[in-house]
Amino acid sequence: MNIAEVIALVNTNRGNGKKENLNRMHLLMDKLGNPQKRLKFIHIAGTNGKGTTAAFIASILEETSLKTGLFTSPHLEVINERIKIDQQNISDEAFIQFTERVVLSVEEVELELSEKLYSFEILTAIALLYFAEQECDMVILETGIGGRLDSTNVIQSPEVAVITSIGLDHMAMLGNTAEDIAKEKAGIIKNGSTVITCFLEGSLREIFKCKATQERASLLMINPKDIEVVSASIKGQLFRYKDFKKLMIRMIGEHQLSNAAIAIEVAIALQNKGYDLTDQSIKAGLEKAFWAGRMETLLEDPIVITDGAHNEQGVALLSKNLRTLFPDKKFTFVVGMMRDKAYMDMIKRIGDLANLFITVSPDPWRGFDAETVASDLRERGYLARSAKQTFEIIDYIQNKASKDEMIIVFGSLYLVGELRKLLLH
């Protein structure tokens, strides 16, 4: 195989059969010798915030002697970003080598079951085998979609299970209500594990309390009252959390403080389990942590901020953060979304903040029609234009935008990744 063939296997739509259990994933892992059983995990699920929370935790662990694997999705620029050890992407050579080994077992499973495995199932197996053979001390494992039936849930009880947020996304697969989605994500809670969640109220809180009780797991829920913002700008945020004073993070947006608090609690849980983490490693790790494409300031002249917000909850957070950080400011929004999203409802959330909308499709097959969306926006009274490709956005930023203009790119991590690659490389 070459790297193009690896990408074609693990980053394209394949697979069939409705996933009603994890039997075929268990069968695949059995054939590979169950490498997941040789690893310790921090398992992360949630509608939004999984990547940044994972980045905070990984950065904290990097301040220790623990060899740390990190499995996340999607990627921004290269697929190797999804599998890292101590913040280093898996090399093309290793990716090819481990894919070739996994493919042999994939072929056996597919022949036995007369079903095709999904790409994410194969990628998960590659990552777990790689982490095991590289003898990682800890693996931070991010779910793809949901939790209960996610291929990452093939692992046994993690050291810590994390739920970052609950929102309405992937409803065709997870359910039509927040409660349905919460039950799916609560599926990563296993017997005797430590569980840390975002702040939840009402029925959602009860779902996780009930699941934790059933599994005899300890549950800790972040309390927003424990977080105190000291200062915030496009350079980062200074805040306090419980007994931790003068904590600094580079990532902007109020929601990142909750993600950072979850990471702190994960570190404390590991301390209580005997892992060698100090309070200083927590502070240093938070300050060094970075996760591209999430309220990331790419340029300052003009200011260009990219954000991966692509669902109702994400866009609501983007709107809140912009209003908090830049009161009375109007923005140029570059937006590209998949056509199966309720994109007009999401765009309306930030409509009153817009000087201009520039629409662009993030994907030629699955993305919305940019000109149709721009036309709809104009009919609703907004100033809007469309771009046929991302190079037109680059030209606007570099040659047409005014110096005091603020440009916000959102709607799809694919769009964010492509613009980031073109602007920074």
Automatic annotation (TrEMBL):
Gene3D superfamilies: Mur ligase, C-terminal domain, Mur-like, catalytic domain. GO terms for cellular component: cytoplasm. It is an enzyme of class 6 (ligase). SUPFAM superfamilies: MurD-like peptide ligases, catalytic domain, MurD-like peptide ligases, peptide-binding domain. Its EC number is 6.3.2.17. It catalyses: (6S)-5,6,7,8-tetrahydrofolyl-(gamma-L-Glu)(n) + L-glutamate + ATP = (6S)-5,6,7,8-tetrahydrofolyl-(gamma-L-Glu)(n+1) + ADP + phosphate + H(+). Residues 293-412 form the Mur ligase C-terminal domain. Keywords: ATP-binding, Ligase, Magnesium, Metal-binding, Nucleotide-binding. InterPro entries: Folylpolyglutamate_synth, Folylpolyglutamate_synth_CS, Mur-like_cat_sf, Mur_ligase_C, Mur_ligase_C_dom_sf, Mur_ligase_cen. GO terms for molecular function: ATP binding; dihydrofolate synthase activity; metal ion binding; tetrahydrofolylpolyglutamate synthase activity. Pfam families: Mur_ligase_C, Mur_ligase_M. Its cofactor is Mg(2+). Residues 44-266 form the Mur ligase central domain. It comes from the Bacteria. Belongs to the folylpolyglutamate synthase family. This is tetrahydrofolate synthase. It comes from Marinilactibacillus piezotolerans.
